[in-house]
Amino acid sequence: MLKKFEIKNFKNFKEKIVIDFSKVGGYQFNPECISHDTLAKMLIYGKNATGKTNFGRAITDIKTVLVFPVMFGESSFLNADSTDEYAEFNYYFQFGKDKVQYLYRKKNANFLSYEEMYINDKIYFTNYITDEGLVFTPGTELKAQAVNLQRYVEVHREGDESSQERTIPFLRWLINNTALTDESPVMKLYNYAKGMTFITLSPRKSLATRRPSADFFKALEKEDNLKDFESFLNIMGVPCKLELQKLPDDTIELYFKHKRKVNFLQTASSGTMALLDIYRMLQNFKEITFMYLDEFDAFYHYEMSENMIAFFKAKYPDSQIIMTTHNTNLMTNRIMRPDCLLILSTFGTLTPLCDATGRELREGHNLEKLYISGEFKDYE
Asked: How many other C-beta atoms can be found within 10 angstroms of the C-beta atom of residue 328?
């Protein structure tokens, strides 16, 4: 699991910002928010433009490094007020008894200029690019493995300055070119990164995806899948029954089942469509290790938002899930706990409620009332 993450000089985060999942409070209520002694279900609050979306993109950036490289750059990748030439990403993981740290630096979304990895506090490799070329230094454990390290160096020598291979991270190259077992800490890191996802439900996103792909409807033709989607909506607080119909042109339409069928896409509310978006995206993952849901309740009544949190707790008990919200109705010990409720400040800090006040927060405290009254204002 991810134990800690640090980011610096990325978008609006000029200084280092840290989230520590190992910082578990001594609370006895809502234990389902914790998994393997690690914070697993969390809500992040913050005023507009504090960087909640940017933080989600930062923490899931490792997936673009190891699994799905981005195909285009971003002009606003680095902090606009900084003179530093790179953003630094630092991940700390715990996989069973193995500790893994992976740090890298990027000049833009595509160009990784530095990376290093530690396994159980021992250097596994260091890799960086200078004006003179690649500098690669393997650690003792990596040297002992049957890996053709020279081939990686040659790839960089052979590529020109614009070559995608010239900037390929060594860790991605190692995973793709070496027969590592699933028990290897390297593969555990890769599999964790593969199961990471960033989901945003902004109004623009919802409108852009209003018509799901034909493959989604094709999958619903299996009765179990249709029932599963129907059950998901019911759990979220949308009482309904669903049915499909294949039209003469072989397209498939989804309907609410009544005496007269009602077209789902034409009549569903924005909240129900947002639920469809979430459900559809969740189907793309065999296993979710980490999920960042930005503005997850933008279209929902607070009761539906509570239903969604309960769903994620039950459906993904061992997954780490962070949700961003402005909904203070969710700032309650009834469904969360003070070490799992965080405030992202305008000056770039991320603080759990239990550390944002001098008083000892207990189960009986009304956290929403304390927040509205300004108890945590120094950390906003």
From this structure: 14
Please enumerate in sequence order all residues whose Cβ is within 8 A of that of 46, keeping only pairs 6 or more positions apart, or say none. Answer: 52, 324, 343, 344, 345, 346, 380
Q: Write out pLDDT tens, residues 60-79.
A: 999 999 998 876 656 689 99
The whole-angstrom separation of Cα 114 and Cα 366 is 46
pLDDT in tens, 247-259: 898 889 999 999 9
The pLDDT-based confidence of 160 (bands split at 50, 70, 90) is very low
Rounded Cα distance between 92 and 102, Å, is 7
Tell which residue, 67, 174, 92, 91, has the closest CA to residue 127.
174
pLDDT band at residue 210, thresholds of 50, 70 and 90? Answer: low
d(CA 240, CA 339): 36
Which residues, in sequence order, are CB contacts of 354 under 8 Å at separation 6+?
25, 338, 339, 361
How much is the pLDDT for 181?
Answer: 92
The C-alpha atoms of residue 160 and residue 175 are separated, in whole angstroms, by 23
Please report where in the chains the tokens 């995608």 appear, as a residue.
164
Strands (DSSP E) along the chain, which ranges?
2-8, 17-20, 34-35, 38-39, 41-45, 87-95, 98-106, 112-119, 122-130, 133-138, 196-200, 242-246, 252-256, 262-263, 290-294, 320-324, 341-344, 350-352
In degrees rounded to 5, what are phi and psi of residue 251?
-75, 155
Q: At what angle do helices 185-194 and 170-177 cross, to 10 degrees?
A: 100
Burial of residue 89 (CB within 10 Å: 0-12, 13-18, 19+) is buried
The sign of the CA dihedral 225, 228, 230, 233 is negative
As a whole number, mean pLDDT of residues 200-212 equals: 58
The strands making up 17-20's β-sheet, listed across from edge to edge, are 17-20, 2-8, 87-95, 98-106, 112-119, 122-130, 133-138
- Token output for 36: 């393997």
Per-residue pLDDT tens over the stretch 105-157: 999 988 899 999 999 999 999 999 888 788 999 999 999 988 888 888 887 76
